[in-house]
UniProtKB/TrEMBL annotation, chains A, B:
Residues 15-267 form the Glycoside hydrolase family 65 N-terminal domain. Residues 699-760 form the Glycoside hydrolase family 65 C-terminal domain. It comes from the Bacteria. This is Maltose phosphorylase. Substrate binds at W359, D360, K602, Q603. SUPFAM superfamilies: Galactose mutarotase-like, Six-hairpin glycosidases. The active site is at E490 (proton donor). GO terms for biological process: carbohydrate metabolic process. Belongs to the glycosyl hydrolase 65 family. GO terms for molecular function: carbohydrate binding; glycosyltransferase activity; hydrolase activity, hydrolyzing O-glycosyl compounds. It holds the Pfam family Glyco_hydro_65C. Residues 324-690 form the Glycoside hydrolase family 65 central catalytic domain.
Amino acid sequence: MNQDYIIPAPWAILEEGFEKEHVKSSESLFSIGNGAMGQRANFEEDYSGKTFQGSYIGGVYYPDKTRVGWWKNGYPEYFAKVLNAPSWIGIKVVVDGESLDLNTVKSVKDFRRELNMKEGWLGRSFEAELQNGTKLKVESKRFLSLEHDELGAINYEVTPLNRDVSISYEPYLDSGITNEDTNWDDKFWNTLSVEEQENKAFITAHTMKTLFHVCTAMSNTFTVDGKEISLTLKTNKSETYIGHVYETDIREGETFAIQKYAGYITSLNHDKDSLKNAANAVLDIALNKSFRNLLNKQKEDWADIWSMADIVIDGDVKAQQGIRFNIFQLNQTYLGKDARLNIGPKGFTGEKYGGSTYWDTEAYCLPFYMATKDQEVARNLLTYRYQHLDKAIENAQKLGFKDGAALYPMVTMNGEECHNEWEITFEEIHRNGAMIFAISNYVRYTGDYSYIPEKGLEVIIAVARFWKQRATWSDKKEQYVILGVTGPNEYENNVNNNFYTNYLAKWCLKYASEQVKKVAKDYNSDYKRIADKTSVSTEELNMWLEVSEKMYLPFSEENDIYLQQDGFLDKELVTVADLDKAERPINQKWSWDRILRSPYIKQADTLQGFYVFEDHFTEEELKKHFDFYEPFTVHESSLSPCVHAIQAAKLGQMDQAYEFYLRTSRLDLDDYNKEVHEGLHITSMAGTWMSVVEGFGGMRIKNDMLSFDPKMPSAWDGFSFKLNFRGQILKVSVSKGKHTFSLDKGSDLTLLLNGKEIRVVAGQTTEA
Amino acid sequence: MNQDYIIPAPWAILEEGFEKEHVKSSESLFSIGNGAMGQRANFEEDYSGKTFQGSYIGGVYYPDKTRVGWWKNGYPEYFAKVLNAPSWIGIKVVVDGESLDLNTVKSVKDFRRELNMKEGWLGRSFEAELQNGTKLKVESKRFLSLEHDELGAINYEVTPLNRDVSISYEPYLDSGITNEDTNWDDKFWNTLSVEEQENKAFITAHTMKTLFHVCTAMSNTFTVDGKEISLTLKTNKSETYIGHVYETDIREGETFAIQKYAGYITSLNHDKDSLKNAANAVLDIALNKSFRNLLNKQKEDWADIWSMADIVIDGDVKAQQGIRFNIFQLNQTYLGKDARLNIGPKGFTGEKYGGSTYWDTEAYCLPFYMATKDQEVARNLLTYRYQHLDKAIENAQKLGFKDGAALYPMVTMNGEECHNEWEITFEEIHRNGAMIFAISNYVRYTGDYSYIPEKGLEVIIAVARFWKQRATWSDKKEQYVILGVTGPNEYENNVNNNFYTNYLAKWCLKYASEQVKKVAKDYNSDYKRIADKTSVSTEELNMWLEVSEKMYLPFSEENDIYLQQDGFLDKELVTVADLDKAERPINQKWSWDRILRSPYIKQADTLQGFYVFEDHFTEEELKKHFDFYEPFTVHESSLSPCVHAIQAAKLGQMDQAYEFYLRTSRLDLDDYNKEVHEGLHITSMAGTWMSVVEGFGGMRIKNDMLSFDPKMPSAWDGFSFKLNFRGQILKVSVSKGKHTFSLDKGSDLTLLLNGKEIRVVAGQTTEA
């Protein structure tokens, strides 16, 4: 743990006391989002200290020219970068001519920041003494509306405490912004117009190259001691800025408040010529509803989300805060309404890394969204990849593949590759299998096969073609091999026959041939439509099966385990426990070559295979592999502990499982990796959810039934969660001794508890 | 071949006719240098067309901040970059108010450029018609003095052909220059003073960070029709520029000439406060000697170089021009006078790549310098690495090695690493062995063992310690393995047990233990001095031998060959002959991952081992390995064909040997790689020399004797070369049927010809 200033609380993230060195970290931790847009928790008033200003719009990106030390053939010339968007949260506050700035005021006291996760708003309050001696109480609250996802609202209040003052508010819009993360200091935005209309202001700008048009707009109302007042405005305007200055005299003890309504209207959802009209309409909605009504609706909407997604942990407030923070941030990042969007590794909390979508979505996030949202959301996640299929085929072509083979990018925004390390970009190809496993996982969980004939099969075929071409025949082994890959464990590069990759490829080819046959038989009209685009001959099907059946898997007879890759046993097999602590984390202490030739595993790799294909192996095999590989695992990826937590729980190693859970659930709150100021680790948050539900809840799908094998960490008194299983909402409560099951929605349900069938009757709570 | 505008001639590089698109290529090809400085063949007069201006000073560099896409631990923060230095060749020419500029004149005829390799000067002549109708004949000649290596001289003449004119010359110095190749557009030079003194001018500047101080100076004299005249000057001056303007009226047919003497005086060789005085003295030497006398001395000095280094090829003028161009450029780049300097991959002809020294020096250049220079030159090359030993130990420490282990950098200027691809920088460690082989090669060739007790042993010990630590024990193989390396064939990265690397390490460890024992026994006072710094225990020696003896070498029983690395036979073994020509060169047509998993070999790798350790293997073994590996070799490195030429010749495959020879000797003249405009491939030129002497001459050292096994390409009538062997200068002439040997210097000599001893008597020509 590298910080502990966040105060434990079950439903909120709290900070008390003002510390300048916490500002950038808190800007990440207190970020807000509504799935369509999001922003770091920057102050509304001016702040001249260290800050990382960021506001982001889902799907609005810029193709930044690639920059590398050494060019490798195949690198993309450009890649999509998350773009900092025009700023609309700012309100300059001037009191008797002095600007309010927490970096320069004489003193700050009672500073408090709250991210209210239950209700979905960010609040801040403090008392400041200005250099001119004026003491002020300041309180702000803001949120990004779930109901109107183009809209945000702020209520900002100042109360002079020791004298009568003149206060001016200058709410503003600013399109003169840059990215923290840019390769060549390109100008990303071109401002087209800065307009005003009564008390509304509009800046219309477009991104360079991608030409996303965005109208950023605001309108403001005012109260004194809660009573509406109207003020005349003066305008400050430049080519990329508009501020409306409102000034009035306020007596000691009176509270002067501004309600700022603002947001983004984009050409993703509107005709680019009608953006201003659309913005005007959104502002009118806000003005009509008022801050209070919008906030009340916000609370209702978040209550709806929590009613489905919440996990309650009894007896461990930090664990409770951690899991809710993870669930809250996932919901702020992605709500599944728009199949063009996805779950960025930093969500709307930072801009590190180009692109927004990793295999994390399929491998870690999909289960969370399947279980806590309507089925349509998971379908949208799958559809996202379906919509990128043409780009994935192009991507494979760039790397020399043909005949419609597809390689999904390592990182992407619009389907194009956004990464440029050859050992990852070109070689970490197991991601391609994650696309197919996600489809099969969706069908297994939802029982909805229709996605495959409608969309999935085209993806399945294209990926199978990739594996067929990527595997090559070894005369020596008389089997198919997959050379030159990087597995999930990125501490190995360019290895031959990574078990996880080979096994996944083997499975994909078999699964593909089965699905082609099934769709041809059971969904013939769909099959004809697909075959018109891309027909699969019997020879091709047979070839897939041939490669699948003859796929080489590295195995050690002596150790009776599958090897992570060829030659793994040639390494010096010193376990992590025997490694000097001063040498860790090895990704900071060791040069890259040393890491590569070591046996140390960054994140589950062979064990990832045992997680994904758990049913293919016995528990004894799992134990053997877990006992062999876990001791070499350094868990230096945020995606590693969750898989190990699940497997340790399955094996009954509960202390270990709890230890892994702790590493994943408070990663950002406690800033384990010393990088929270750059933004949050959004995708690994879904892994935390899996640790609880699949790990401690032991949830699996077996023969179209939910199955549980609950095991509770000894530190907890109990925990509960809900699952949307095929339209039925099941609540599961685990406590010492007994477990209870009840249905919030749906008809009676049979489930498995520790392997035994249990009937849960609608309207009744079943204890077992 | 990508160009053929260079006119074949035995002693010159010739270009006729003015083509703007040839300018940048010719600027590289016609480069001149004197070992201490060098410059591209930029025009003296202004040229507004496409040009790459470059003038470089040996040993003057700048630490450029590293730029990469993804940082890997261990990368150097900064690395030394070859610096473009203040320009002194410029002479602005204005005729009746119009500037002479070949890009804007009305017409150019009879343009001719000559690099006279025999005499060491660059000439250019043309007739131009200006826009104002004036026709001019222009002739220039310039050289960098071998005698005074801080000095260059230019004679530049203009003759008006159709009218009387007023001509002004403005010879100038300019320190406002930049690099073509820079990571962050840093300012590299800070100008301290721009001064003049009578008709001399001086600019003193220092490099940023490294603080090399350089005084660039000039003085000019004038003649009309050969008669000295004196002219008054006007000065044009800025903070980084000084020009002296001389104007006079010239009649039609009269020739107005300027002799410009200029050069660099640096703090490498002078106290930085006395640079201007030293520059003044150098200019005075030039003014006293005059252009003609300096040029005559230049011819003599180049005649001396050629008397030792020339290779004569009869019956093949392009081959003749090619080999002389290579020998000429090597001598322009490095003359061995200064052990701080080395042989940059682009010499003084461009600035691509940071650093100046690769393992090319030890593996390819050393034999050339040993055979064509005094022994001291080769010793200086070895001493260069001795002087960098502390930095090599630091470099190894950065990568986690300890106890005085050294890893020499992949690329360097001052001993620090200048490269940043992890697979090369950290893993292409065979370079460390090249340092030791070079020492043993030096001793074998020169018979001078004294270098080892004096300097070499410390390097040998430090490198042995590296190999000892880098090799790790494999419980599975029960042998030592070397994991995660890149061999000479850079089309394989991060492989295990590269045969060449393992074999070299095995040899180094054995050689090191032998040398420690020998020095301890035979050079005890040296040994004590060394042991005071770094003592080697008997246990350590035994450990070296243990690792050497138990070093694993990948071998295929089935094919009866050593494998390039573990798993090589798992590849799809399609030979280059069966590869579609449209797919080549693969480094342009294929993505990097595809190259890596292919069997294709960029440059000799296993065969490099058979070249270096030829004596360790039978000819049958060589043939078996050559026949196996050569068919997979794409020769996409400039260093590949020479080794294959030598081995093909040894195996009697003469057509193949000649084909390889052609690929290496005219690489730049015919611009095979379409990149000659960036500079020349200097180090591979030494490989061309080896192809002739070791390949066709069959030269080896056997039992302290020179040995020859001459084999001539059928296209040639004969060839001859000289060797400095232990102070004796042997001339070897090979022709169809008979070979002759004679001594230019030294007493009688016994050599081996085709395995039989032959006595060469001083003063006599021996035929055989």
